[in-house]
Amino acid sequence: MREEPVTEREVLRVNLEDGSIKPVRDEVAVECRIELYTNGKRHATLLSSPRKVRELAVGRLLSEGVINGLDEVKSLTVSGGKVHIRLSEKSKTPHTRKVFWVIEETAKVRFNPTVILRAVDVLNSKAQIFRRTGGTHASALLDRNGEVIAFSEDVSRRNAVDKVLGEALLKGVDLRATLLASTGRLTSDMVMRAARAGISVMVSTSAPTDRGIEIAEEFGITLIGFTRGSKFNVYTHPEGVLERSRSGGLGTS
Hints:
Layout lengths: L5 E10 L4 E10 L2 E7 L2 E8 L4 H11 L9 E7 L2 E6 L25 H14 L1 H6 L3 E6 L5 E7 L2 H15 L7 E4 L5 H10 L3 E4 L5 H9 L3 E7 L2 E6 L6 E2 L5 E2 L2
Parallel strand pairs: 3-6, 9-10, 10-11
Antiparallel strand pairs: 1-2, 3-4, 5-6, 7-8, 7-9, 11-12, 13-14
């Protein structure tokens, strides 16, 4: 398996303004095939950027609802493009996956709106592979103070999220006290990842889908999209970033 996330290819650069066609060397993102095995059986084949493979494997099992915590992982080994994980008996089979957290309003962690903008700054400033290739998504986890807990880039937006979830889990971080940020669309499966991790605020530079909004509403997640400049759209549960005044209105804290 390749170790570097970027490689070079020769391409033909076409310029219709001056009619030129010339060969140039261009950087492209590397995509690897990773086989994930649980308890000796192949669980999934993942197409991923080559870094943070351990984090990807653990995060994928969490985001699928197979595990609820690191205590359910008895062992983890990576060899080439294969990851072998031994799970405890209380881990879920593929047929019993479920969402573990429904976030009640009293249990929600409220984030200052400036942390929302900080999250997007992190996505943009740390996305070095994207700047070189234009071929990756980015994801990050931040705490209430805007400190970065985990960051990852991947050719897949789902993998990028799974990698930061897995990294936080391996570090022993309480995911319920974090904000999840992504450059990807907020589709139903992306929002479900936050729900299964117990994360109450999810932010993206991109758009949500109707089903993504419905799931966020159902599971108590503050869903924020189109975060650009000093503006963002709050689609569900605004109490996660906006403070309710005594008069019943909403405002920034």
